[in-house]
Amino acid sequence: MEAEEYLRKLDAYSNTKGCKRLENIVCNIVETEYFQNKAEDIREKCGISVTAKDSSDRFQTLMDKLSEKDRRYIKKELKDLCKKYTLSYFDWSDTMRYYLFFGKIKKMDENHNAFNMCLISNLAEEEKDPFGKDVRESDNIAYPIAIRISPYASKRDILDFINKIYPDIKDYQEESINSKSSIWYRRIGNPKKRERNKFIYKNKDLPLKKIARLVSDEFEEILDDGHIGKIISFETKRRKEV
Length: 242
What we know:
Elements: H1 3-14, H2 17-31, H3 33-46, H4 56-65, H5 68-84, H6 89-102, H7 123-128, H8 132-142, H9 155-176, H10 191-202, H11 208-219, H12 225-239
Helix pairs in contact: 3-5, 5-6, 10-12
């Protein structure tokens, strides 16, 4: 694929609403108590310490230092986490590994056809891929609903089909849902407010008036004690979701 065509595809896919929504969902998942406890268990078992100095090169160096036993253990645990949260292991496993080392979310793959609520696949070609079975198993967890398209279908044919049979698509989705957690249904919030709320939660053990002063200094916002209390309550509840 030519560089120009690749960049066009990367821009198009990453600007879909499904891509942006899924990134937000993964951030919500990582902040839950369940995920945090699981991440700490993995770190403790594999002797991983969180470091603030992050980079792709440093990530690979730290991964290479792990024993084969630890790498297999991490792979199994992350597969289970992806299955629990209905995420593609091939898309998100390295992002989760990166989090184990650096405590930050970072997409580690520049594949345009990934990290999204929808996926396009050439099923015939996947059958020939030596890793096709593993990919299909991962995709069947994250993308259990498929619409198979004729190579002769026009854009109008495809959109007309989706519009008219969407209730059937919805039925298949409902049958496939394994979690009613509000993580999947919460609206994407304003990024600045999200950071502010995370900051408030991080400092939740401080007196409310002290938190208010810190928020004013950091975000140039004036919040009263009641507002801050509601944010702490909301963030606490959000993190208890599984």
